[in-house]
């Protein structure tokens, strides 16, 4: 596909050094984090909080620990506030911007809601893990919306993806929520152990919630049609491919009866 064909789907990249730099940094840093997951250098939360090695153990004693619930609230709240504030900061940027602002705000509101009322956590999160993720979510959501603002006086891309984007976003959030619900049903009140998830797409892949998150993020891109939105979705895809690969390896090492036909994130393939 030539660059000019690609431009049929995109607003012209704005002459903004900030947006150009963020497009590169977001995609490269997320992809790098995904490669690190495959290499065994995990973000320190959830199952991978307890992955032990000699050096890691010593270092972990010096880490400031948050409960997973507090850590996750810290991760998502600033991004939610950025989305909600954007309605006041950019109130008149047109329908596409309004839909994007609504989608970003709803996504992070849903995450805060799930942290408070759906997920049942067993562990902790290191503050040094939580801070960069918090900054990255906050900056990404603010940049998504600001990049859209910069398109408000530009001609629309010749191929309009707004409505397919809304559909993708809705499929993404619904599928993601449903699989979070199935995960939460694995534990009774106060229970902390891990079990093999069942139901929904868990019978085909071990991280269907990541798959639907990726679908939802391409929903943002299709709604937005900015270069930044695609850089964010592509970077997220690489990160979640890496994390899902590491998650499948973790299940294989922990459960002798883990079904080998259950892939990481893409049914029958990966
Ligand atoms: N956009 C991004 O870059 C990005 C990055 C990461 C995550 N996310 C999204 O955030 C959401 C949550 O991700 P996550 O990595 O926190 O998911 P996760 O590790 O699968 O955990 C989700 C919840 O399910 C519980 N859980 C997981 N496996 C379980 C099992 N086998 N038995 C019982 N409970 C289990 C976890 O408990 P414990 O905490 O006790 O493990 C946690 O409460 C996902 O939808 C993901 O797509 C997005």
Automatic annotation (TrEMBL):
<feature type="transmembrane region" description="Helical">
    <location>
        <begin position="161"/>
        <end position="179"/>
    </location>
</feature>
<dbReference type="InterPro" id="IPR001104">
    <property type="entry name" value="3-oxo-5_a-steroid_4-DH_C"/>
</dbReference>
<feature type="domain" description="3-oxo-5-alpha-steroid 4-dehydrogenase C-terminal">
    <location>
        <begin position="161"/>
        <end position="270"/>
    </location>
</feature>
<dbReference type="GO" id="GO:0016491">
    <property type="term" value="F:oxidoreductase activity"/>
</dbReference>
<feature type="transmembrane region" description="Helical">
    <location>
        <begin position="16"/>
        <end position="35"/>
    </location>
</feature>
<dbReference type="GO" id="GO:0016627">
    <property type="term" value="F:oxidoreductase activity, acting on the CH-CH group of donors"/>
</dbReference>
<dbReference type="GO" id="GO:0016020">
    <property type="term" value="C:membrane"/>
</dbReference>
<feature type="transmembrane region" description="Helical">
    <location>
        <begin position="226"/>
        <end position="246"/>
    </location>
</feature>
<comment type="similarity">
    <text>Belongs to the steroid 5-alpha reductase family.</text>
</comment>
<dbReference type="InterPro" id="IPR039357">
    <property type="entry name" value="SRD5A/TECR"/>
</dbReference>
<keyword id="KW-0812">Transmembrane</keyword>
<keyword id="KW-1133">Transmembrane helix</keyword>
<feature type="transmembrane region" description="Helical">
    <location>
        <begin position="70"/>
        <end position="89"/>
    </location>
</feature>
<protein>
    <submittedName>
        <fullName>3-oxo-5-alpha-steroid 4-dehydrogenase family protein</fullName>
    </submittedName>
</protein>
<dbReference type="Pfam" id="PF02544">
    <property type="entry name" value="Steroid_dh"/>
</dbReference>
<feature type="transmembrane region" description="Helical">
    <location>
        <begin position="125"/>
        <end position="149"/>
    </location>
</feature>
<dbReference type="GO" id="GO:0006629">
    <property type="term" value="P:lipid metabolic process"/>
</dbReference>
<keyword id="KW-0472">Membrane</keyword>
